[in-house]
TrEMBL record:
GO biological process, one term: isoleucine biosynthetic process
Reaction catalysed by this enzyme: 2 pyruvate + H(+) = (2S)-2-acetolactate + CO2
Function: Catalyzes the conversion of 2 pyruvate molecules into acetolactate in the first common step of the biosynthetic pathway of the branched-amino acids such as leucine, isoleucine, and valine.
Top-level lineage group: Bacteria
Family stated for the protein in its record: Belongs to the acetolactate synthase small subunit family.
Name listed for the protein in its UniProt record: Acetolactate synthase small subunit
Pathway annotation from the record: Amino-acid biosynthesis; L-valine biosynthesis; L-valine from pyruvate: step 1/4; Amino-acid biosynthesis; L-isoleucine biosynthesis; L-isoleucine from 2-oxobutanoate: step 1/4
UniProt domain ACT: residue ranges: 7-81
Catalytic activity, EC: 2.2.1.6
GO MF: acetolactate synthase activity; acetolactate synthase regulator activity
Subunit structure, as described in the record: Dimer of large and small chains.
GO cellular component: cytosol
């Protein structure tokens, strides 16, 4: 059995504690969350949660079924990662010498990363891209002294005009 990496897109009611309930459901059942992003949608009453996780197909199916049972989850789908747009944001702070800066700048140009802060002994780089691009960038930077880094986690949206539907009714679960 092969482990599948997937992105789950959820539309949930924008209520206090809904994120905690989703995360607790994963934890109680022993499912791992590789990354998680949350934001309000164009409807302030609805938030979108993107969860990157992995598992065998049977496990992914079980995750979807269990998540659907949460009362505030209006919609869930497994994003087709080959057809969806995926992005992450990385901020990475590097300790640098004057001699290293030009090489780091060349790396940034290749990856289309931006240097957003520069001091005498450090710089901060911002990169947005697919998770694989972020991983490759960090690998190339690994010989340098990475002081600190943070990643947003993957967010994804399907291409084309199709939208993720959600139930507008008050009591959508009978």
């Amino acid at each position: 059995m092969t482990q599948e990496k997937v992105a789950l897109a959820l539309l949930v009611e924008n209520n206090t504690g809904v994120l905690a309930r989703v995360a607790m459901m994963f934890g109680r059942r022993g499912y791992n969350i590789d990354s998680l992003t949350v934001s309000e949608t164009n409807d302030p009453g609805i938030s979108r949660i993107t969860i990157a996780t992995h598992g065998e197909e049977k496990v992914i199916d079980q995750i979807v079924l269990q998540t659907k049972k949460l009362i505030e989850v209006r919609s869930i789908r497994v994003e087709d990662t080959s057809a969806a747009i995926q992005r992450e944001l990385l901020l990475v702070k590097l300790r640098t010498t004057e001699n290293q800066r030009s090489r780091i700048k060349e790396i940034c140009e290749i990856y289309e990363a931006k240097i957003v802060d520069l001091t005498r002994d450090s710089l901060i780089v911002e990169l947005t891209g697919k998770p694989g691009k972020i991983d490759a960038f960090l690998e190339v930077l690994s010989p340098y002294d990475i002081i600190e880094q943070c990643r947003t986690g993957m967010t994804t949206i399907g291409r084309g005009s199709a939208v993720m539907p959600y139930d507008h009714t008050e009591n959508h679960r009978a």
